[in-house]
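user: can you give me the structure for this one chain? tokens are fine.
assistant: on it. calling the predictor now.
[tool input]
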Amino acid sequence: MKNSGNKSSIKTKSEKRSALLAGRTLKSFNPWLSYVFVLFHPRAVLTNFRCFAVIITEFFFVQFLEKFRILRIPVVHVDHPLDSKIPFRPEKVPIYLDFINLWVRPLNLLVQRCGWWKAGKLTREWMRRFRKLYEHSAEVYHFRLTTTDRPAYNEMREFRQMHALDPHFLCVPSLHVATMAMAFGFYRSVFAKEGFTEEEIGRWQGELYAGAVEITETVLFVKQHSVNCIPAALYLVSSNFPDIFSEDDARKFLDDMFRKNEIPSADADETRSYMAGLFEKFISEGKTSENWFVPVREFLLNYEKNVSDSAAQKNPGT
């Protein structure tokens, strides 16, 4: 006699995969498996290498050509007095350098949760957006390069490598921060569209968001960016990728920064207020501008003029 067991007890592939991943954190997924997957998946390989070509051109080439005085794009110092209220914390550099793994680890998750073939399609979608992020940033970088004063600190290997590989001319908008915002928005969208359970969304989306905010804070703690760089990055993402990261997402992101009492509360409040005000300025001006980047370019022109005027006042005879 055939068993007429309850059909509702039969699990789908999605349910089985979900059960196998129960309780796992994003940090438990091996990023190195994701790197292999990203590079060579047949559904994404062409998109991947187009993206890498843009990154090499618009991040490395631009900076080193400027360093060796071949491009000669004007460079604006975008330091702000508030930067001095964020202490230099070199021990946070491993968190800062985790920004690539933050978006790479979840690709391994997608393979195990959605299946290898579907994950390839999602990877291709991410890499297309990632390429566009660099292309949009270049619309500012080719107009003005930007830098800040970095401490002459070489006691840790990470800083020696970072300073050697990054000539530090691409501060506004911060690609580090923009990547964090876009990664959070992208995976949040994937979790919703691909039928992840409420428990999975709460666990993985929460971990991803907390990591994105923490890494964004470290760009100031390790003195790789200024407070001016963060709102420009969030404006970049919310303007060009509003389907996954909105203006309100950016506002919440800024409001959630520096809430761990690592700096005095008055300094945290002042820093958040300044960044929020600058973000709103970009948004307001962007609504009447022909292109998204116009407010950022105008900001840099004004900053350049103010820095020049200040230097002239300090050194009237030069």
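assistant: here you go. The chain has one domain: 71-306. The first strand starts at residue 75 and ends at 77.
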